[in-house]
Amino acid sequence: MIYPLAFGFANSECTESWTWFLKKLRKVIQYPDRVMLVSDLHNGIFNAMEAIFLDVAHGIYAHHLVQNLKRFYKQRDGVIWLYYRATYAYRIEEFDRVMSELKETYCKVYDELLAVGVKKFSRVHSSRKRYFLMTTIIASMNSCLLAV
User: Fold this and answer.
1) How far is residue 64's CA from residue 131's CA, in Å, rounded to a whole number?
2) Which of 21, 54, 64, 147 could connect to 40 by a Cys-Cys bridge, CB 3.0–4.6 Å?
3) What is the pTM of this model?
């Protein structure tokens, strides 16, 4: 079962709206050093996170990063396969091996992933555990709200 932690309504997805939301969320999180927030690549979220949650680990939702890769690169299958292998690697050696392969075959993708930051998308480099957690996006919440 999915339990919503928090949601809010705003005029638009912008830094100001995300700052408002994350300030409210910050008030209810008692142990921020034990939390990892996972989001999409929206600039407003990144800006607000840097201002409000400096002590909280921030990860990228793997699905959103894959959607960007699919949108910008025609050789989808190879890129996606290597991205997932790197993302879900359990050992640094495995991650490094896959990233080297990605660098050799899709150098632009490799550079973009490094620009995002390996701590944000890689399980093995994450500063917090990225598993044993249920995360959701508003699309899942929509079905819950419609039932009410």
Assistant:
1) 17
2) 64
3) 0.71
Q: CB count, 10 Å around CB of 146?
A: 7
Looking at the structure, do residues 97 and 80 belong to the same domain, yes or no? yes
Structural domain boundaries enclosing 103: 62-127
H, E, C per residue of 119-138: HHHCCCCCCCCCCCCCCCCH
Cα angle: 55, vertex 137, 90; to 5 degrees: 60
Which residues lie across from 37 on neighbouring strands? Answer: 58
| Distance in angstroms (rounded) separating the CA atoms of residues 59 and 131 | 12
Summarised one tens digit per residue, pLDDT across range 43-90 is 888 888 888 888 888 888 788 888 888 887 765 678 888 999 999 899
